């Protein structure tokens, strides 16, 4: 990790049900934290690069996310577009010993 990186505790993991996402605001950026049904946690930009659809409300399947507005599909690990033409910004996220979601601040 970069020595100057700042980590921010967002919330306990259990505040996000499996298969759902929640939006947070960190350092002026809107970030969608997604909890997959298989227990993985991802953090990506909250606004879809197409027309700002709310990605925290998207359809989550494994490590893919489908935008609720026009169904562009993204890989949550890499941010790559699986359909559509713009990739997502991704953020480093982990769980701490207390089961809280910790994001490396942008
Ligand atoms: S706003 Fe996300 S696909 Fe259009």
Q: Span from first to last CA?
A: 13 Å
CATH class designation: Mainly Beta
| Helix content, binned percent | under 10%
Rg value? 13 Å
Strand-pairing-aware structural class: mainly beta
Mean pLDDT across all amino acids? 94
- Strand tally is 10
For the biggest sheet, the summary is: 4 strands, antiparallel
- Name the ligand types: FE2/S2 (inorganic) cluster
Poorly predicted regions are none
What is the fourth-level CATH superfamily?
Rieske [2Fe-2S] iron-sulphur domain
Describe the overall structure:
With 106 residues, this protein is mainly β. It has one domain (7-104): Rieske Iron-sulfur Protein (3-layer Sandwich), CATH 2.102.10. It has no helices and 10 strands. The protein has strands spanning 7-12, 20-26, 29-35, 41-45, 59-61, 64-66, 73-75, 90-91, 93-95, 100-104. The strands form 3 sheets. It has a 4-stranded antiparallel sheet with strand order 2-3-4-8, with no helix packed on it. Strands 1-10-9 form a 3-stranded antiparallel sheet, with no helix packed on it. Strand 6 and strand 7 (73-75) form a beta hairpin. It is globular. The two termini are 13 Å apart. The structure holds FE2/S2 (inorganic) cluster. FE2/S2 (inorganic) cluster binds at residues 48, 50-51, 53, 67, 69-70, 72.
Q: What are the key terms here?
A:
single chain, 106 residues, mainly beta, Rieske Iron-sulfur Protein, 4-stranded antiparallel β-sheet, 3-stranded antiparallel β-sheet, 10 strands, 42% strand, binds FE2/S2 (inorganic) cluster
């Amino acid at each position: 990790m970069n020595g100057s990186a700042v980590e921010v505790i967002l919330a306990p993991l259990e505040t996000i049900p499996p298969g759902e996402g929640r939006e947070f605001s960190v350092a002026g950026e809107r970030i969608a934290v997604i909890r997959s049904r298989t227990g993985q946690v991802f953090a990506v930009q909250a606004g879809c690069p197409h027309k700002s659809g709310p990605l925290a409300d998207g359809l989550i399947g494994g490590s893919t996310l489908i935008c609720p507005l026009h169904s562009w599909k993204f890989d949550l690990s890499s941010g790559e577009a699986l359909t559509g033409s713009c990739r997502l910004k991704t953020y480093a996220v982990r769980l701490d010993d207390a089961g809280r979601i910790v994001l490396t601040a942008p």
